[in-house]
Amino acid sequence: MRITNKYGLSRSRVNLAYHQMQRPTENILRATELIDAPRMRMLKLRHWDEIVIDCTDVGANSIYGSMKHLLVAGAVDSGYLSEVKLKWWTNEDIIEWISGTPDLYDKESQIIEDNKWTKTWKQVYRWEDDGDQFRDWEEQLNVYAWLLRKVMALDTNQLVINVSWMDWTAYRVDPNKNNYPQRPDERKIMSLWDNNKQQLYVLDRLHRHISATHKDNTPLPLCTATERWAKKDKWAVMKKGRKSALSVVLSEQNANEILEKTPEATSIEYRKGADKRCVDYCIVNQFCDYWRDTYAKD
Questions:
Q1: Helices assigned H by DSSP within 214-288
Q2: Are 36 and 68 within one domain?
Q3: Do both 97 and 36 map to the same domain?
Q4: Where in the chain does DSSP place strands (E)?
Q5: CA-CA distance, 243 to 269, in Å (whole number)?
Q6: Cα dihedral sign for 228, 167, 33, 1?
Q7: Radius of gyration of the chain (CA)
Q8: pTM value?
Q9: Neighbouring residues of 204: CB distance < 8 A, sequence distance ≥ 6
Q10: CATH number assigned to the domain comprising residue 183
């Protein structure tokens, strides 16, 4: 990977970007890779030395998140396990290990805590069509719970995300709505799966990645809509002279029904969906046939 510096930032900022970008290892599957798209991991493995990104494309949330991890690790007492590196042998030929590093494990209460520094769009907009915007956090922490049990024989009673919203602002808070964070720092409880569900999930994801690893010159499995952060096509019912829509629905038929029943409605505006991650956040999209066929020609 080569990281450029188009905007003349300091050398330390470029070095920070290099530090954040981890080359994938073929025989080790990290927990964050396990829960993510096999296609993305394989494209990184195949094309890592060809990837060129600017240091400003390595998000501040990732860098500040790492800084928060360091600060928290320095503030914990002996009642916690902090940043313990866990590795479980898979007994497979290609991907031999699953690894993960939980931020904190409270030995007394048996709580796993993970610290996140991210933008409010995570709660407000992401995956707004299915309302499951914290699914990846839930999956990640359940994988950590599974690893702690497998590697260290430690049980888990609760999964907690300590999230800091980096762009939080008080004027957007509405106590009657939950779509915007109420405070700049929040403690979110993730659903803890039973042992069997964790086991089935980890093994299913492992075999998906193993299957993709075998595909040298054949098409890789397509990323799912969730993995692409896909936004569905929508139809907005509009009123002449008003910028915002009267209503936004997921089918043209519903939009036409609203148009007929609403006297002030004057038109329908089609809003094409998009794969937000593919377009704006995937560092290997130039090597992806789905991205080339769908977006490169635009």
A1: 252-261, 276-280
A2: yes
A3: yes
A4: 2-4, 28-30, 52-54, 80-82, 86-89, 97-100, 104-106, 111-118, 158-165, 185-190, 234-238, 247-249, 267-271
A5: 11
A6: positive
A7: 22
A8: 0.88
A9: none
A10: 3.90.320.10
What whole-number distance in Å separates Cα of residue 185 and Cα of residue 166? 9
What are the pLDDT digits (tens) for 45-95? 999 999 999 988 886 656 666 666 666 667 778 899 999 999 999 999 899
Tell me whether residue 111 is exposed, middle or buried, using C-beta atoms within 10 angstroms of its C-beta: 0 to 12, 13 to 18, 19 or more: middle
Instruction: Note down the domain range covering 247.
Output: 234-272
Does 39 share its domain with 149? yes
Q: Which two tokens stand for residue 163?
A: 């999230």
| pLDDT tens-place string over residues 237-257 | 999 999 899 999 989 999 999
Distances (CA, A) of 102 to 3, 16, 85, 119, 278: 28, 22, 8, 21, 28
pLDDT in tens, 134-187: 999 999 999 999 999 999 999 999 999 999 998 999 999 988 777 889 999 999
Stretch (H or E) spanning 149: helix 135-152
Phi, psi of 24 (to 5 degrees): -70, 150
Q: Which residues contact 294 (CB under 8 A, 6 or more apart)?
A: 275, 278
Total domain count, the chain? 2
